[in-house]
Input
Amino acid sequence: MLNFNLLFDPLSLFFLFVIFIISLPSAIYSLGYFSPKANPCLSGRQAPAAEKDKYSRGKLTLLWFLFVAFVASMALVVTAANLLIFLAAWEIMSLISYFLVVFETGQEKSIQAGLIYIVMTHIGTAFLIAAFLLMYQHCHSFDILVIKNACQAMPAQLKNIIFILLLVGFGTKAGIVPLHIWLPYAHPQAPSHISSLMSGVMIKTAIYGLIRFVIFTLGVNSSWWGMLILVLAVISCLVGVIYALMEHDIKRLLAYHSVENIGIILLGVGLSMFFIARNMPYLAIFSLIAGLYHLVNHAIFKGLLFLCAGSVYKATGTRDMEKLGGLIKKMPQTAFYFLIGSMGISALPPLNGFVSEWLTLQAFFLGASSVIGGAKLFLGICAGMLALTGGLAAACFVKAFGITFLAEPRSRRAEEAREVSFSMKAGMLFLSFLTVIFGLAAGWIVALLAKVASASTGIEIGSMIFSLNIFTLSPQTAKGVYLSTPLLALVLIVLGMAGFGVYMLFGRRKPVIYKTWDCGYYKLSSRNEYTATAFSKPFRIAFSFFLMPYRKTEKIRGSFYHVKSFVYETHTTPVFKKYIYAPLVALVFKSARFMRRIQPGSIHLYLAYIFAALLLLIIFMQKF
Amino acid sequence: MRQILLFGILTSTYLMCIAKRMPALVRSFRYQSFFIFLITLAAGFSEKRIDYYFVALLILVLKVFIIPALLNLTARRINVDENLGLFVNAQLSLVAALVLSYCSWVFSRGLGFGQYHKLLAMTVAFAVIFIGAFLMISRMKALTQVVGLLVMENGVFILASSVSGGMPFFVEIAIFLDVFVSVIIMGLFVFRINKLFTHIDVTKLSRLKG
Output
């Protein structure tokens, strides 16, 4: 019954590739991140900040061990050919990531984040176990391939139940709204290279689970599955990006973007399921390609961005954007890599994010033009939401880059920042390079992903054409839609060079360095600068129906006419926490308190329990 | 003959239920153990087995003399109120004991042993176990819990000897040793509890909870 076979079909290989391509730069990066001498600027008066990052030798060894075990467990998750092995690997992965979240044990926040994480992940696993047991009950085997064959004869009702269980189980790990609650707490709390692994890779294993178990094993048989995933994905996109806009902790901002990007990936996957159920093979393959493409892209640029954020944290000792600023002058390389990552995630051509979001949008347009009735409208709305998400993401990264790296330093720490060590830069360079490559080599990658999609859906791709040649993608050959990122890059380079040439020829002027015009107020300091909160104010107003911002003001007066101090705070209401999780947690605690009454601490009562249990058992035995 | 001895055991167990003070309880326990000694001796006579004599001798020495003496000693040493502190008063305890005896009768009958004397022995054994547990639950003082455990152990002994013709000799010896050691340890603990809290009232030991 229990075998240790591994599965190495194209789907597993693809995910293995994603895991290892992110793990490698993370490992290199962590060499510098933890080396004690890498940070000369933090000696002296900033020593406490540096102390926080310094680990003892034993703890560093433990971290390496956890890192390797984490990567290995993720690799096992995506290759396990047996449900039990899968579950074991899944649980190991969850536990190790929990240990990594609480690794910086000194911080109260870590413990709390870890608690939320481990509770949520176990709830998810419980749903998975239920789904797997139902599968086993019907198929009498834990082997995925055997189950795949047996699932063809599974009643539709059972399939629906298993699908819902799997969706909740994997959705918890992926961070689909409203199950995302743990993600923005847990991911930023781990050491940065681990954050990049968690956000870049670990949540993708949940997507793997969905593809492997829903599309590959179970087989999609009704189109509402895809529609449900699409709805959840659209909500995840919007909620993720809106919360990210409100955030000024740089790592948590990135974590919220993971929620958004998981939504975009799921748009591709859900769309594929929708088309499979409607028996439209070309579109099914095409959507899945878009989803998988965005998956690998997100792994790359989110890994990159987390590494950059880690560098910023390492150099300044803070993750609060309001205390940063001006870093582009101190850490030009990190700034450059962060810019590449931001451009990737904001889907600017010719980088990788652009290609995959373009593919996803094309899948929606193609789909909308080939279905009729309400579905057309539905797909159109989804596409619109995706476009909105892209716009908001771009705005968010304007904020993230602008506030963190531009203008004047907002605190002493930001002033004293220095560029990070070589191995850290190497890790970031590698991922920046990939960001560009995955944009330019779109033709090849789509051809490879088509094979992966074909293997996971079981649809033949012999006669399907996705690209004109290796430089040009063209999903709708007949309709004349083309995308060639190398050409785009070329155009941009040529235009840029032309512009530069014109500037050099005619527009060159001697720069005059002077202070910013300050309306006659002669003492502008960093406190007068634009802040992240101010930048996101228009969005806070635009989405106030969802964010429900509120403010608290407090005046302390000497007399009626003299206000001594004035405190102004503005917050947004955490909707999901307040209206879903808080009542749930309160309910759990209430019932727990109720149950605690059976434990009054009296030995006699405990003895009586034992005695009563004994008597009841004997009576039970007599009766049956 | 055996029946009379079994009723003797049962009666001494009922006596424990109505005992209000420590010496009375220990005395009843002594009677009970003495009856068990007699039963084992009788079994040794009828089945002509040497090891039964030895076990009987051990019962006589340990359960009739040493352990009750130890209990009395502890009770005297900690020098507290001799009252047991009854949750359930004597009359109601007796009623409960009768109900439990009836239950054990029903249970043993349900187990389906044909021979009458085995059935009777089993009923008494169950009754003694139940009443021992009942004593542990319904008396406040920590020493009563010790006595209750000993009573339950007696019940288990009767059960083993009546149903399976006794346990292997070495197991028997080991159990005696266990009981003896546990009495010493619990005596020590009770002594310690008394020293620390200046009472041995278990109802007041209720701080350890979630």
